[in-house]
Amino acid sequence: MSEIANREVMVAQKCSTKNGSFSDSPYCIFLAASIKHNWDYAAKGMRITIESCRISNPNIPIAVIIDDDSLAVRELFKGCEIIIINTSELKLGLRQDLGIGVYFIFYVHLLNHYKKVLYLDGDTLVFGDLTPLFETEGRLLARRFERNLSVEYVNPEIVMQKEGVASSTDCINTGVVLFDMEYWGNGKLKQEFLSIAEEYGWHDFKNPDQGFFNIISWRHSIKDKLPEYYNTFISEIEKSSSHYSKVSADGISFPCVANLDIKIIHFIGPIKPWHFATQGYSLRKVGYRYYEQFLPWQTRIYQHLLVYPNFIRRKLTSLLDKYSN
Fold first, then answer.
1. Among 74, 84, 160, 259, whose CB has the most other CB atoms within 10 angstroms?
2. What is the pLDDT of residue 324?
3. In angstroms, rounded to a whole number, what is the distance separating the alpha carbons of residues 133 and 57?
C-alpha cells in the first residue's frame, strides 16, 4: 500500500450492519490498533469485541482505524468500515510494548460523518443496548477516578505546574470513550495530542493515551462521567460478592453487580482472556466464561485442549524457579 504514505487516510472498506445493509445511523462504534504491531490483539481481542457489539447492537455500524490493508485484515473486519491511516507522524513512547496503535484513538475526526462515536478497547465485551449511552449529553464521556499523577507521568511535578492540577486528581480510563463529533469532528483532538507530545516529549507518558487525554480534558474543563456499568473492570466483577449472571434474549450470559446490568466489561491488565489457554490459566474463571461464548466452537475446543499442558508447564516452571533460588 505505497500510496498511503503520501496522505493521512484511506477508506479501504465501507461499513454495513449485521444484516449486510448499509446503515444511516447517527452513531458508530469504533476500535483502533496497529495490526502490524499486534495481530493477536486484532484477531483474538478486537474481533471478539466486534462480535459482541453485533449481537447486542445489530443496527449500529462499526469502524476500525488501523495501519494495514492486507486481504487477511479485510476478511477479519468484514462488514466494518476500515480506515487505514498514515502513521509517519507518530513516535513510540515510553511504553514501546503498546506500539503506536495506542495513539490511533486520536484520529476520531475521520469518523465525523457520525453524530456520536463510541471508542472501545479491543479487550472489552458489550452486552447491552448502547442507545441510551449514545443519547447521553457530553463532549467526552469516559470513566473517571482520582489517581496519583506519578502513575501516569514520568515527571508529575512538571505536569502539576503546567496544568494547574493537584498531585492526586481526576483522571480518565480510555477503554470506553464517547465522543460528540460536533465538538471533536474538526480534528482538534489529534492536533492537541501532537502539540502536547511536542511540549512534554513522547517519553513522559507512562500510559500514553490516558496521559494525553487527561491533559486535554483538564484544558477543556471536561468533567462528564461515564457510568461505571459502561466500563466495568473484570477484577471488580470477580471480587464482587453481589455478582451474578443473567441470560439475554439472544442467549448471551452477562454479568450483574449490585442488581445493575453490566453493559460493557473491560479486561484491564496485562493478562487478557485470549492468553489464558496459552499461559495455562484456568478457563473456569468468570471473565473467561463471558469471553468464551463469543468464540467459534472449534476455537473453544482447541482452547480447552491447550490449557492443561500449559498449566502443568507453568506450575513446573514456578516450582523450578522457587527451588533454584
1. 84
2. 76
3. 12
Using DSSP's 3-state secondary structure scheme, residue 85 falls into strand
Query: Hey, how many other C-beta atoms are within 10 angstroms of the C-beta on 177?
Result: 23
Classified as helix, coil or strand, 31 is strand
CA angle 47, 178, 123 (to 5 degrees): 30
Is a pLDDT exceeding 60 seen at residue 303? yes
The ranges assigned to domains in the chain are 2-226, 229-324
Average pLDDT over residues 156-176: 92
β-strand 168-180 against 140-148: which pairing, if any?
A: antiparallel
Of 63-72, 215-224, 311-320, the range with the lowest mean pLDDT is 311-320
- The pLDDT value given to residue 2: 40
**Cell numbers describing residue 213:** 487525554
User: Letter for the amino acid at 157?
Assistant: E
The position carrying cell 457510568 is 227
Q: Among 84-88, 256-260, 311-315, which is the least confidently predicted range?
A: 311-315
Mean residue pLDDT across the chain = 90
Whether 325 has a pLDDT exceeding 70, the answer reads: no
**Number of H helices and number of E strands within the chain?**
12, 13
Strand 62-66 and strand 27-32: the pairing is parallel
Residue 233: CB atoms within 10 Å: 18
- 253-257 sheet: strands from edge to edge: 243-247, 253-257, 260-261
User: How far is residue 255's CA from residue 233's CA, in Å, rounded to a whole number?
Assistant: 12
- Rounded to two decimals, what is the model's pTM? 0.91
Looking at residue 54, its pLDDT comes to 97
Q: In the chain, where does DSSP find H-type helix?
A: 39-40, 47-56, 71-76, 131-134, 156-163, 181-184, 188-200, 208-219, 234-239, 276-279, 286-292, 297-324
Contact between 229 and 133 under an 8 Å Cβ cutoff? The reply is: no
How many whole angstroms from its chain centre is CA 232? 13
Helix/strand/coil for 82 = strand
